[in-house]
What we know:
Elements: E1 5-6, E2 11-19, E3 30-37, E4 43-51, E5 59-67, E6 74-83, E7 92-100, H1 103-106, E8 110-115, E9 119-121, E10 125-134, E11 140-151, E12 162-169, E13 178-183, E14 191-199, H2 208-211, E15 212-223, E16 228-230, E17 241-244, H3 269-281, E18 286-289, H4 292-301, E19 306-309, H5 318-330, E20 333-336, H6 346-351, E21 354-362, E22 366-369, H7 386-389, E23 393-394, E24 410-414, E25 420-426, E26 430-435, H8 446-450, E27 454-460, E28 469-471, H9 475-482, H10 496-508, E29 525-534, E30 540-547, E31 553-556, H11 566-569, E32 573-580, E33 584-593, E34 599-613, E35 616-631, H12 634-646, H13 656-674, H14 678-694, H15 701-725
Parallel strand pairs: 1-7, 9-15, 17-18, 17-19, 19-20, 20-28
Antiparallel strand pairs: 2-5, 3-4, 3-6, 6-7, 8-10, 10-13, 11-12, 11-14, 14-15, 16-29, 21-24, 21-26, 22-23, 22-25, 25-27, 27-28, 29-33, 30-32, 30-34, 31-33, 34-35
Amino acid sequence: xxxxxxxxxxxxxxxxxxxxxxxxxxxxxxxxxxxxxxxxxxxxxxxxxxxxxxxxxxxxxxxxxxxxxxxxxxxxxxxxxxxxxxxxxxxxxxxxxxxxxxxxxxxxxxxxxxxxxxxxxxxxxxxxxxxxxxxxxxxxxxxxxxxxxxxxxxxxxxxxxxxxxxxxxxxxxxxxxxxxxxxxxxxxxxxxxxxxxxxxxxxxxxxxxxxxxxxxxxxxxxxxxxxxxxxxxxxxxxxxxxxxxxxxxxxxxxxxxxxxxxxxxxxxxxxxxxxxxxxxxxxxxxxxxxxxxxxxxxxxxxxxxxxxxxxxxxxxxxxxxxxxxxxxxxxxxxxxxxxxxxxxxxxxxxxxxxxxxxxxxxxxxxxxxxxxxxxxxxxxxxxxxxxxxxxxxxxxxxxxxxxxxxxxxxxxxxxxxxxxxxxxxxxxxxxxxxxxxxxxxxxxxxxxxxxxxxxxxxxxxxxxxxxxxxxxxxxxxxxxxxxxxxxxxxxxxxxxxxxxxxxxxxxxxxxxxxxxxxxxxxxxxxxxxxxxxxxxxxxxxxxxxxxxxxxxxxxxxxxxxxxxxxxxxxxxxxxxxxxxxxxxxxxxxxxxxxxxxxxxxxxxxxxxxxxxxxxxxxxxxxxxxxxxxxxxxxxxxxxxxxxxxxxxxxxxxxxxxxxxxxxxxxxxxxxxxxxxxxxxxxxxxxxxxxxxxxxxxxxxxxxxxxxxxxxxxxxxxxxxxxxxxxxxxxxx
Length: 732
């Protein structure tokens, strides 16, 4: 034989040699029989050859090729028998042997298939379908199987092999097709090969490459899913919210001596932490202030697009009330929380279309959202998530040890048909009700409220370009109840009650501006929301570049709610990087203060993907947007407003006396404005807003249009005074 070991399908070359060893005698004719015996002793091949007489010392070779077809493993014997037909010599037999290796030693006959999709997003799982089949010469018993992954270009291994366990297969059988998931890693456009391998029966000294045989392979390309960048959510992104809860010295004096109770609550630091835990989780930029002067000061900054007054705020000063009222009329959000003793600011409830009428004690604190009504979209909706949709919104009810009517929901009476009752309380089992007498001609009688089957929990109504919202319950207490009275850890997973309030807060703090603004005032803060969605299971690093117009000032991220150094505000271009977690969507609220001069300002925002390691990185532009903001100067606005009012001699919505008072107040505003007395000009503009608010705008569209123009002027004067005083404390 040409070898001593063969595989099950090899060809065995058998050479038969007949030699006359005599040096002086001719050998007569011979017959040689070759036989191949398998490990069981059965003859599986025979070859008979006849030879003529051989001269002295002559020899004759014949070679035969025997193909082993799925030969069983073991020791094979080749037997050669020489026979002299003339009887001149006795028969002679010679044997030789060789081994046929098993398939577990060679891998021959062990096959399989492995399949995969052609591409996979880096960080996502890819299914690898595999199957083994046994066409070998033995039954397979406990053959170790695995999948390895290698870089198709370099051949280097990626990660650790995927063990598929031990496989047992009789000859001719196949395993069922199975699937294993591999969490992909790699760079964009990298091609990876997946090799299905079986372990051979080799000595322990053999290399890993010799011990493992590849029976099938597949390949796929790694891709990075695109980051979705959106600039078109200016009207969807929650603008920065200014939250006011009172803690100034002696603030509780206004809460004393009402209905069998003397209130002496401490400052609401605990309530502050509860509210922050929710706002941080839903990614709404915010600032919380405790002092009345701080609230008015931040209101003048122009940074905030919505205002949330927590319960127990003392009555706002007349000028602060007018300023926040006109801000709501201009389209900014106003949310009044009616916990504790908040009838002090009942006029704010009227902006949301409701009248304060007392308190109601309910045994069930469930808040039920209501469908759209009053030609307004639904304010609170049912979550699409099946688990979240069955989680109730709960507020606090009676509390042991609390004074009479403390923390009871307030009783809200809708004022007009334009009022939307966005959510209700079930009145089926009310435990108590205290109704305040109202002398207004259109007010409902006290008996009416005792017969109601439900009470308003959330009220809203259109107001100018805005849509204020009044809550009839203590929202921070409701949030604290969902937190079980504890402050959640930053990394903790939100519970269903917390998620339900997350959903409701997101809706309450969504923009509700009914008419988009077409122009801005000098130095007004503006926001450019950039929504970034990472659709892969791998964190992505992005770079944001903002090119500012000449004269603009950078206010930072988080909608400008965070203080940044003065040197950083004067940059003409701002660049920063951020990491977007896997499978997440975030909105970057970048903020800047527009130039003081009039004209069109262009803000260019570019989002790029960052790739590379350490300091060696490259950026690839993903999206770019230009936002244009038209700035109209205060002089232009005031001159147009004066010209319009002075030419206004009659109106279906205003009497002659109302128009005369309006023009008289305008003369005084002109005096303060022309001398740059911003504080007095702002107070006087508040008086003019009272004049316009008292008129019947439904009968004359000019009333509403002029009030909007006045509110734009008021906003511009507030910002000018805010920048001029540079942090100086003002009258609350």
